[in-house]
Amino acid sequence: KISAFIFDLDGVITDTAEYHYLAWKQLAEELGIFFDREFNEQLKGVSRMESLERILAFGNQAERYTKEEKEALAAKKNEHYKQLIEKITPNDLLPGIAELLEDLKKRGIKIGLASASKNAFAVIERLQIGGYFDTIVDAANIQHSKPHPEIFLTAAQQLGVPCVECVGVEDAEAGIQAIKAANMFAVGVGTKEAMKDADYIVESTADLNYESILKAFQQK
Ligand code: BG6
Ligand code: MG
User: Fold this and answer.
1) How far is the CA of 77 from the centre of ligand 1 (A)?
2) H-helix or E-strand spanning residue 168
3) For this structure, is 10 an active site residue?
4) What is the ipTM of this complex?
5) C-alpha distances in angstroms, 163 versus 28, 150, 154, 169, 179?
6) Would residue 138 show up in a list of annotated catalytic residues for this protein?
7) If both were cysteines, with which of 26, 58, 69, 187 could 65 make a disulfide (CB 3.0 to 4.6 Å apart)?
8) Residues of the chain whose pLDDT is less than 70?
């Protein structure tokens, strides 16, 4: 049986994955580093500092900056990101998410959030959906980033639910790996190629539906 759903935030609940992309792209271009959506796929679900390291390495600039300078660069990206998320309203929930959260609540299924973002609480607040979540685990509560399973394991533990009864929902490759490593059922939102390790794939959040997920879960 399914006892809990644990959601990623950025790119699953709302389209902040796009805002992270835009904010990193602006910073990368200021540094003279080419940045496109294909490269951005590798940053999804990855922490702020690790994302910066990957961008600098991609632009052959890994050795150019001191630790302090890198922290300043990451802070600059975050300032831009924070400006972008100020515009978020409850209308910015991705299609089908409000209905799914409501359906899960009615069925008595626990709901958790597992987000690598230090801005997770601010985004949830702007979306006005905090009341749906039985637990929120964000970057501040964990040591290891996705693809490490820690964030999903912590959420399950806080919900008091065994991992085998949890469904994780993700849009990032690193996130799917984290869910699988936590021994949970992985639902991927995205293309078949990007979500190839997921147990169940939907192209859009509009196609996330409890009954269909349960069927796939039981068949596994
Ligand atoms: C993840 C996003 O949820 O959070 C990444 O997928 C982002 O793109 C990471 O870099 C960290 O977010 P923040 O808000 O702490 O910089
Ligand atoms: Mg995501």
Assistant:
1) 11
2) strand 166-170
3) yes
4) 0.98
5) 38, 12, 10, 14, 9
6) no
7) 69
8) none
